[in-house]
Amino acid sequence: MASRTLYQALAGTRKQLVVAPRTWMRTLSTAQGTPAAPESAPTLESLVPPTDALKKPIRRTINETVEPITPYNMTIAKLLAAGLHLGHSTSLWEPATLPFIFGTREGLSIINLEQTLVYLRRACNVAREIAVRGGTILFVGTRPGFQDLTIDAARQCEGYHVSGKWIPGTLTNAHQVLGRHAPPDPEDPGRAPKTYKPDLIVLLNPLENKIAISEAQLHKIPIIAITDTDYDPRRVTYPIPANDDSIRGVELIAKVISSAAKDGVFRRKHMLDQKVKETKFNRNENNFSRR
Amino acid sequence: MATSVLVRRGLMALNPARSTVTRWAVQSQMRASTLQANTATTDDVFAYREKPSSLSYFTGNFKYNDLLIELDILHKKYADWKGDSPKIEVVIPEASLPSELATPKNGVNTVEIVELEVEPASHAWKLREKMSEMLGIPLKTSQWRKIVGQLNQLASLPAPHPPAVELVLQQYSRFDAAQQQTAKPKTLDDLGRAYAAGRRKESSARCWVVEGEGKVLVNGESLETYFKRPVDRDEVTLPLKVTENSDKFNIWVSVNGGGTTGQAQAIKLGVGKALLTHNMEWKPLLREAGCITRDPRVVERKKEGQRKARARYTWYVILPLRIYEAREYLFYYVCVFFFSLKKTTLGSSVKNLYIILTTKKIRTIIIISSIQKQKRTKEQKRAMWFK
């Protein structure tokens, strides 16, 4: 129950959403080279990271050596630390997101992280089961800051990525879009090469990828998407109500889903190995019985 | 696991695992996938499913994207590389406050990546066409620029580069860059002379500049005797004057071709280039004075149909005349008519005979468009002639 008490301590009552003190936030956030919190009141100089830390771009915003990121380790505290509860301005909200909104604070809608956790777990289960059945998982993150994290997430779970532009017609005009650069068949060079479709799409910014969503709907491909308070969650199959603007938050969600999918891939390999062993065992047994 | 009662209840209510399994088992059979056979057994789950080989298959341009990813991985792997002499100058931008809770955002992206400025690498990479040929994919200029950006990033690691990086960089560097670097720098010869050649219009000057008192010899003669005009003399001594070396260098010049001004300016160029061999620091002074740039202006050729390079003949008149009207003109220029009649290529058929009459003085061209053979009686013809 530690996370709940922590959440309550942070939240206070429903009316008062207390902003966590900066020193506490910094110890939880694990950027490289962050200095220890000073005991006196935090000054601007103490908040500025030292020059050594600035010589490199901050590539790993979530330090995995401290605690690995898996769906089983996910807590509301972690989601809060990544800033996933911050929705958009109340004047820009989508009324269909009402069930997911905890309240408003300083003109922003605050997303209910309990709901986020539930939907995130569901999405992880979907990803895992699809991976167990050998499905292709496609991570789509088209914002400029999302490129690295999309590619990493895809690589970890033997999936695929679209981190630049989603080319309209990737699914509906696959023959032309995907078949163009694909290597021709070794047996029949004249024929157009075979094209593939994903079995699951994980969209990190559905607001900018309307075309991808409509194409997936045409081909009955399920979509997991991070839906913010300005996006109708009913448009995707498995929404995850969370903040889509924070790179750290999106990286957390992408990593969680990717680790679940990796788990599924591992299970599939394990079960396939088991099957092979079983058939070998049965064959040997039959041989023995014959004698 | 630290989960609240509420969360657990929510999970149980949704019951995701069971429902998704059954849903997916059915859907995977219903969907028209590329290779799977339509059987209803549970063993179908473990059937082999063919997948695309490249990570970036769905981007539409997988070779290019895979290349970028590969270069990025290489850069990340050696991000901490420290060579013998680190040459990177770091420009530290303003630090961004780590906590997002403090600053309310209104639909604005908060990018947390800190960017640093690195001095540009002076490496010569393969050009777009050669690179696309090498990679086997058509490259647009923007794509080539992105690849070159990544290569520059890799090349900007402190030297000496790690072997893996060196291998990659070698593949993409331009061949002739190495040849350019082997050009040997110009030095003074064993007598302390700097040699340079200068050209202008049809003149070429060979100049030797050596430390001395300020004497100038052109083709064995002194400056005053060779160049009668003070303008030309000033041009010859301009490089020395501009760098305040009027009495510090002797010049010996052998010049031929062209006229006075051309020769003077050729000498100016030669002396300027020779002075650079003595001291590179005078380059900005000489460049501002115009002593280093070879003046490319030469005499323009004459073009056919024009009087000179640019001057054209006076404008001409085309009068479509019947031949009976042109008889007055023909009367005057009858010999020229016969001459040009022989020359016309269009005058093969009688119907479309073009007769071009020209005069020496005013270059008037009269083109008779057609010859109409009118059947006239003898009386009519006589009347015409004696009108």
Give an account of the 3D structure.
The complex is a heterodimer of chains A (291) and B (387). Helix content of chain A is 41%, strand content 11%. Chain A has a domain at 62-178 and 193-275: Rossmann fold (3-Layer(aba) Sandwich). In chain A, α6 (113-132) runs parallel beside α10 (247-290) and α7 runs parallel beside α10 (247-290). In chain A, β2 (101-105) and β3 form a beta hairpin. In chain A, 41% of the residues are buried. In chain A, the strands form two sheets. In chain A, strands 5-4-6-7-8 form a five-stranded parallel beta sheet, covered by helices on one side. By secondary structure, chain A is an alpha/beta fold. With 387 residues, chain B is an alpha+beta fold. Helices cover 38% and strands 9% of the residues of chain B. Chain B has 14 helices and seven strands. Chain B has helices at residues 5-14, 16-30, 62-77, 128-135, 141-155, 163-172, 175-181, 223-226, 230-242, 260-278, 283-289, 327-332, 334-343, 378-385, and strands spanning 193-200, 203-211, 216-218, 221-222, 249-256, 356-357, 366-367. In chain B, the strands form two sheets. A five-stranded mixed beta sheet of chain B has the order 1-2-5-3-4. In chain B, strands 6-7 form a two-stranded antiparallel ribbon. In chain B, β6 and β7 form a beta hairpin. Chain B is flat, with a radius of gyration of 42 Å. The model of chain B is unreliable at 17-22, 32-40, 85-121, 332-355 and 357-372 (pLDDT under 50). At the A-B interface, α1, α2, β1, α6 and α7 of A face α1, α2 and α3 of B. Chain A: One of its GO terms (biological process) is translation. Chain A: InterPro entries: Ribosomal_uS2, Ribosomal_uS2_bac/mit/plastid, Ribosomal_uS2_CS, Ribosomal_uS2_flav_dom_sf. Chain A: This is Ribosomal protein S2.
